[in-house]
Amino acid sequence: MRPHTTRRLALAATLALGAAVIPAATAAAVQDPIPIGPNTYFYGLVGDKAADAVIQVVCPGPVGPTSTGHPVSGQTAEVRSVVPPVTSQYGYTGSAAHQIDAGLTLPSSATVNPPIVFTSFFAPAAIPTTWVVPCGGTTTMTFVPLATSTTARSYTLTVAFVNIAA
To answer: In the record, which residues are listed under signal peptide (predicted)?
Structure first.
């Protein structure tokens, strides 16, 4: 074989091997859902963020301090388990939980939105576009373990609303 042909074959083999390794490495980063159960530490995310979380909202027309709108489709919330040792900043399912409900803390005059129900960790769920939320400002989303027990502890995440129609 000529040296030029050998180099081409070596390059082709290297590229083929690299192409085979990249999907395997990417697949390893994906976490399969894990059923929620007792005695597990956890935290919540909105839009893949556990800090500086944002819910994009559509609020057409003039917007005032009490204006409301609906979340943009395609946004998610999620709960993830944490392996001890942990700090007190995390939630805890306690001795009885098999589910975590997530909901927004809104003014008492606001529409009550149904919670997002999680039965598995690492399983993103859609933020409902039917929710009625403020067009701006911040609030908290609380992730509450159910069934509750004396050892259960909720997790709270600050969420900002951003009007994309402005």
So the answer is: 1-27
Whole-number Å distance between alpha carbons of 85 and 64: 45
* Segments forming the whole domain that contains residue 10: 1-30
Distance separating alpha carbons of residues 42 and 46, to the nearest angstrom: 14
Question: Could you count the other beta carbons within 10 Å of the beta carbon of residue 121?
Answer: 22
What 8-state DSSP symbol labels residue 87?
Answer: -
Question: What's the pLDDT at 19?
Answer: 42
| DSSP 8-state assignment for residue 119 | S
What is the C-alpha to C-alpha distance for residues 76 and 13, in angstroms, rounded to an integer?
41
Nearest to 93 by CA among 147, 142, 140: 147
Quote the pLDDT of residue 29.
Answer: 66
Question: pTM of the entire structure?
Answer: 0.80
- Phi, psi angles (nearest 5°) of residue 28: -65, -25
Same domain, 62 and 121: yes
What local confidence, expressed as pLDDT, does residue 61 receive? 82
**Amino acid making up residue 51:** A
Residues 60 and 142 grouped into a single domain: yes
